[in-house]
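Collaboration report, partner site 2.

Our partner group contributed sequences for two proteins of shared interest, and the home lab folded both. The records are reproduced in the order in which they were received, starting with the first partner submission.
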Amino acid sequence: MKKCVYLLGSLSLSVLFSCNSSDSDYKAIDPYENIKATFGSNIDPENLYNYAGQQVPGYITKDNSGANPVTDKVATLGRVLFYDVNLSSNNTVSCASCHKQEHAFSDTAVASTGVNGTTTRHTMRLINTRFAAETHFFWDERALSLEQQTTMPVRNHGEMGFSGENGDQSFDDLILKLGSLGYYKELFTFVYGNDEITEEKIQQALAQFVRSIQSFDSKYDTGRAIAGNDGPPFPNFTQQENQGKDLFLRPPAFNQNAERINGGVGCAGCHRIPEFDIDPAVRNNGLIANLSGGGFDTANTRAPSLRDLVKADGTLNGPLMHNGQFATLEDAILHYNIISTANNNNLDNRLMPGGIGQKLNMTQDEVNALAAFLKTLTGTNVYTDAKWGNPFQ
C-alpha cells in the first residue's frame, strides 16, 4: 500500500485523496470537515454570506475601513470569533455576550458581566461602526483603531480574562487554545492560506465583521432618498417627526446668559447627519457620573451612531449614556436642556456658549418631537439577518 495525493483545484481549498498502489480505491479528505461538523449549514465555505457587497446609500460618504476593507472570507471568520465563548478564559463569555444582535449589538444591562466582574461603562451599540469619521473606540477613545479595540476586552482581566496578570492566562495561551480547535485550523487556512493564528489576524477578522454590521432600512433612509437632501420636510414623516428633524438640524441662538432665544437645538453639530456619527472633535457631553457612583468621569467623549437607539416597537435597545443613566429617549434629550460646567474641565465648547452651560429651555412638545425623529433612525434587518447571527446555534 502506498499513499498518493490528488488535488481538486476547483474548490477554494484542495480536496485530498488517499489511494492504493493501483489507484483504484479513493477516499476524499474533506478540508471543511470540522467547519461542517461545528456549524452545519450556518457556514458554507463554498457559499458565503455577502458582507463585502452590501448596498450602501449614495449619501453615506464616511468609511473608516482604512487598509482593512470588509471581505466575505475574513468577515466570516470574524463572525465565528465574535460568537465564540472560547475567547474567554472560562468558556462562558463571547463578544456577543455584551453585544447582542437582538438589542442592536448592545446590552440591556447597565454594566455587562465578564469572567471576573463587570465592565466599567455601559456597552456601546455596534451599528454602522464603519460609517464614521471617528477612528478611536471605547467611550474614552483609548483604542486608536477598531482593530486594536477588538482584542482589548479579551486581554481584560474582568471581561474575558486573558490578561496575563492577576493569575490569568496570557494571550499566547489563547492562541494555543484556538489552535487546538479543528474548525479554526480549517477557517484560518480557508481565509489566510495557512492555519497560523496571530493576534493581528484575529483583530483583522473581528474588525471586518463589526464593520459589516449596517442598518440603512429605516424610515429616515426612505425619506432621505425621496427628498434628496436633509433640509426639506420628508414626505413620509409625520408633522411631529419633521419638527424633530428640524430641531435636530438647526443650531440654537443664545442670549448672553446662554439661554436659547430661537432656532433649533443643534444636535447635528456633534451627531452628524446622515451617518449620525459623532464628530471626532467633541469633548465631554456634560454627563460626568460613573458607574460606581463615586467621583467624576469626564473622559467620555465618544458616542456610537444614533441609529437604532430603539427597536421597531419603540423600546430602547438598552439604557443610554456611558453609565446607562437614562431609561428613555426623552430623559436623554432632557439632559441637554440645562448643562452644568461644575467639576468638568473637559466639557465641549458647543455646550457652553460664552463659557456658560447652555439652557435650551425645550418645551415638552419639542422633546417629544426630537424623540419621534430619533425613532425614525431604526431599521429592521439588522436584528434578524443570519449573517450577523450566532453560527454556533
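Second partner submission, folded after the first:
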Amino acid sequence: MILRRSAREWMGDAAVTAVGLAIGLLVLAGSREDYPAPTGWVDDVREAALGAVGLLVLMLFRKRWPVGVAVFLTFLGFTNSVSWGATAMSVYTVAVYRRWPSAIAVAALNATIVMLLFQLVSNPMSRQDRWEASVVFVLGYTVLVAVGMLVRSRRMLIESLRERARAAETEQLLRVEEARLLERERIAREMHDVLAHRISLLAVHAGALEFRPDTPAEQREAAGIIRQSAFEAMEDLREVIGVLRRDRPGTDDPERPQPTLADVSGLVTESRRAGGPVTLDEHVPDPGRVPSRVGRHAYRIVQEGLTNARKHAPGAAVRVTLDAATDLDIEVVNAVPPAKPGLAMPGAGAGLVGLAERVALLGGTLEHGRTGDGRFRLHARLPL
C-alpha cells in the first residue's frame, strides 16, 4: 500500500520532501550562525542521519498517517535541526488530509514547543531576537495550515464535481436505457395488433376450410389443427402483451388503430395548423404497396423529426421527403437557429434512441446530425 503509488504521487511526495529538506537546511544554517561553537564530524553525521530519517518518514508515511508522522517529527526535532523542515511539511500534510481541528492542534503543538525552546534554552540570542524568531515560526505554521486547508478545499470541490459528473452520466445512461425499453414495449404492442389481425384471418380461413362439406377428412383434420393452433397463438400473444402492460397506468384502454405511410400527410397538415412551416415532398407511387409495418415505423420517424424541430428550432422551416424508388428513404431537414443563452431546451436524446430501435428492427439505417450548411438532418432508410 505504501509503495504502490503512481508516478504523479511519487513526484508530489518528492516535491514536499525537497521543500522540507530546504527548510531544514535553512534552520541548520541559522543554528550554526547563532551557535558558532565548533562541531566535529560526529555531529555532522548525526545531523545528516537523523534528518534523513525524518525526511524518509515524511515521504513514505505522510499520507497514510499524517497526524502520527507530525507528532513523531515534532519530538524528533529535539535531536537535530534538519528534521524541522520535515516537521513543518508534516503540519502542512495534516491540513491537506485531515479536518481543520487536527491541523490546528498539531500546528499549535509545534508552535508551542518552538516558542518554549527559544525562551527556555540558554543561547546567545537577545530576548527580542528570541521573540521575533518565535513569531516568525508561528506565522510560518499559520501559512502552512492555511495553504493546506485551501488545497484540501480545492480537492474536495474537484471530487464533488467529479461525483456529480459521474452521477449525471449514470442518470443519462439510465434514461437512455429506459427510453430504449419503452420503445421496444411500444413496438411490441404495435406488432401485437398486426399479428393479431393476421392470426385471426388464418383462424377464420382454417375454420371455413374445416367446416366445408366437400372438404376431405384429412384436410378437415389439418384445418382444425391449424385453427386450434391459431387460437392458442392468439392467447399466448395476449398473455405476453398483458405482461408488458402490467403496472402501467392507462393501459386498460383499447389500442388505437396504428398509423400507416398514408397518414404522414395528415401529420404534416397537423404540424402546419400548429404554425410550423412544413413542406412535404413525397415520391411514393403506390403507398398501398408499402408494408404496413414499414409504413408504421416511417410515420413514427417523421413524427419524431417534426417534434424535435418544434422543440429545438421553433419557427424554422422543415422539409419532409419520402422516396420509395428502391428502399423507403425518409428525410426530415430543418434549419438550426443560432443558440441563445437560456433559451436552449434540454433533451436527453431518448426519441432518437427509440428511432434507432425501430430502424434496427427492420434492418435499416439511421443518420442524424448537423450538416455543413447549418441545418439538422434526420435520415432513415427502411428496406422494402
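Feedback sent to the partner group on the second submission included the following. Residues 176-245 form one domain. The chain has a mean pLDDT of 76.
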